[in-house]
């Protein structure tokens, strides 16, 4: 099944990819040369960790006087569309692109990316063996790495220890979703501006669909069965959807249907939520006194479960090189710099150890200063990444790769459409059953195409 799936996805351009082609706007070509200097154009997602890399980039330029860096930093949805369009059409706008473990195996199979293994093997001291195995494997195709990780994550639950203590509640190390719902009901205090829990409701396959799909998985649901029959109206999927929607509607944040990772991060950091289930990378911001009023007040436990042993997701933002990149060695030199052990050390020393890119290198967790700064969340992060496999997070076999996403090209469009239905249910604009009936139609169309090629 896996080999057949690989053959099917080669050359398959989803509707969202075709739409993305229309979004490409003109920009200076990658690898431009002026006055003897190579200019590398690097497309990245705008978030705090990437901004730190930009702030430190002058150090790379001083170490490599013949290379000038030009960053194109965009919000996630815009970055995905622009990077996808440029890479798929071999447009050559970018020398280095930031992608995830969703795109990497697919794009490698399509021949869109440069195989990085020869560069890695020739780079003394780079130590790719130091990457956490599940992260390294998620960025590999046929035994070679096609992207190198900048940071990695799973998902877990943050909770306010002080509020739990005041309420006389003890958080278990491995909570169930029913326990979390009960805690949220007890701690929900809208009169004082505190939601019981913050959960994403913002549309987007990488927004609300990420946490929601982990709930589907642990409730025993799946997007497709082994024969690519859509399962979005199955009893298990319905149970998960009703649970998620009811929880966030009854005990979640105000305006949940438009709240994503950033919005929940702001609310939690400002003391407006008792719990927050999301990406493990949130912890660094939660514990940064410069951006959080609740620094030092949080505990972190494993992603809640229902029928499975674990339910955390697996995700990594990484750097890849489009196949058409002309200045390949210069591009690799930059990629190595940004994903090397020394970069981790530099971020910690310059910006504080809570700002270190987490979840990629095992050696990061051996740094004494980082261990001290991250003592509340380092081990839960590692445990979540370690347990992030389909065997531990799902109850039934599926024909697709991925945990919080379906690893097929069509999922960018399908997931976004389904997330819009979920958001409408959270907003009270339609019932969960109505939302899932429409979502099932979308998924069935995608599944039909795969059934026909089996």
Short description:
The protein is of the alpha+beta class and 454 residues long. 44% of the residues lie in helices and 12% in strands.
Distinctive features:
2 domains; 454 residues; D-Maltodextrin-Binding Protein, domain 2; disordered N terminus; Sugar ABC transporter substrate-binding protein; globular; 6-stranded mixed sheet; 20 helices; signal; SBP; Bact_solute-bd_prot1
Description:
The protein is α+β, with helices and mostly antiparallel strands and about 450 residues long. The protein has two domains: about 1-155 and about 315-380, 3-Layer(aba) Sandwich (D-Maltodextrin-Binding Protein, domain 2); about 155-315 and about 385-450, 3-Layer(aba) Sandwich (D-Maltodextrin-Binding Protein, domain 2), CATH 3.40.190.10. It contains 20 helices and eleven strands. The strands form three sheets. Strands 1, 2, 3, 4, 7 and 11 form a six-stranded mixed β-sheet that branches. Strand 1 and strand 2 form a beta hairpin. The longest helix has 21 residues, at about 430-450. Residues about 1-30 have low confidence and may be disordered.
Question: Major beta sheet, specifics?
Answer: 6 strands, mixed
Q: What integer is the average pLDDT?
A: 92
Q: What is the correct CATH architecture of the largest domain?
A: 3-Layer(aba) Sandwich
Distance between the termini: 9 Å
Helicity level, as a percent range? 40-55%
Sequence stretches where pLDDT stays below 50 over 5 or more residues: 1-28
- Structural class, judged by helices and strands? alpha+beta
Q: Give the assembly state of these chains.
A: single chain
Number of strands: 11
The tally of structural domains comes to 2
Specify the CATH homologous superfamily of the largest domain: Periplasmic binding protein-like II
Tally of separate helices? 20
Sheet-strand content, in percent, reads: 5-15%
CATH class of the largest domain: Alpha Beta
What's the gyration radius in Å? 22 Å
Output the CATH topology of the largest domain. Answer: D-Maltodextrin-Binding Protein, domain 2
What spatial form do the alpha-carbon principal axes imply? globular
């Amino acid at each position: 099944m896996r080999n057949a799936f690989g053959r099917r996805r080669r050359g398959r351009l989803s509707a969202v990819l075709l739409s993305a082609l229309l979004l490409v706007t003109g920009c200076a070509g990658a690898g431009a040369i002026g006055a003897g200097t190579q200019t590398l154009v690097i497309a990245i997602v705008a978030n705090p960790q990437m901004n730190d890399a930009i702030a430190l980039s002058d150090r790379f330029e001083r170490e490599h006087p013949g290379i000038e860096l030009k960053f194109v930093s965009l919000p996630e949805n815009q970055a995905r569309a622009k990077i996808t369009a440029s890479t798929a059409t071999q447009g050559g706008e970018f020398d280095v692109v930031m992608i995830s473990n969703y795109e990497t195996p697919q794009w490698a199979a399509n021949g869109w990316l440069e195989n990085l293994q020869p560069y890695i093997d020739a780079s003394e001291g780079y130590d790719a063996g130091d990457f956490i195995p599940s992260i390294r494997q998620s960025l590999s195709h046929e035994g070679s790495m096609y992207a190198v990780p900048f940071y990695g994550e799973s998902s877990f639950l943050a909770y306010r220890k002080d509020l739990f203590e005041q309420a006389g509640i003890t958080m278990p190390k491995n909570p169930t979703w029913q326990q979390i719902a009960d805690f949220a009901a007890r701690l929900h205090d809208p009169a004082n501006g505190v939601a019981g829990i913050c959960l994403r409701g913002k549309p987007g396959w990488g927004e609300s669909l990420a946490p929601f799909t982990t709930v589907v998985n642990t409730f025993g649901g799946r997007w497709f069965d082994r024969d690519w029959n859509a399962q979005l109206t199955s009893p298990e999927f319905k149970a998960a959807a009703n649970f998620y929607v009811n929880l966030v509607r009854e005990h979640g944040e105000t305006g949940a249907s438009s709240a994503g990772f950033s919005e929940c991060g702001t609310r939690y950091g400002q003391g407006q939520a008792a719990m927050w289930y999301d990406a493990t990378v949130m912890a660094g911001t939660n514990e940064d006194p410069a951006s959080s009023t609740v620094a030092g007040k949080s505990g972190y436990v494993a992603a809640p479960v229902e029928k499975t042993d674990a339910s955390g997701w697996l995700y990594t933002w990484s750097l890849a090189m489009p196949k058409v990149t002309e200045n390949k060695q210069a591009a690799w030199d930059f990629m190595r710099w940004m994903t090397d052990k020394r970069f981790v050390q530099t971020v910690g020393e310059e910006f504080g150890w809570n700002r270190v890119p987490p979840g990629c290198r095992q050696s990061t967790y051996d740094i004494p200063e980082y261990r001290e700064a991250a003592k509340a969340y380092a081990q839960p992060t590692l445990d979540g990444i370690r347990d992030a496999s389909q065997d531990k997070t799902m109850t039934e076999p599926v024909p697709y790769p991925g945990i919080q996403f379906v690893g097929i090209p069509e999922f960018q469009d399908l997931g976004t459409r389904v997330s819009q239905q979920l958001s409408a249910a959270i907003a009270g604009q339609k019932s969960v059953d109505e939302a899932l009936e429409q979502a099932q139609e979308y998924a069935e169309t995608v599944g039909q195409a795969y059934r026909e090629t089996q």
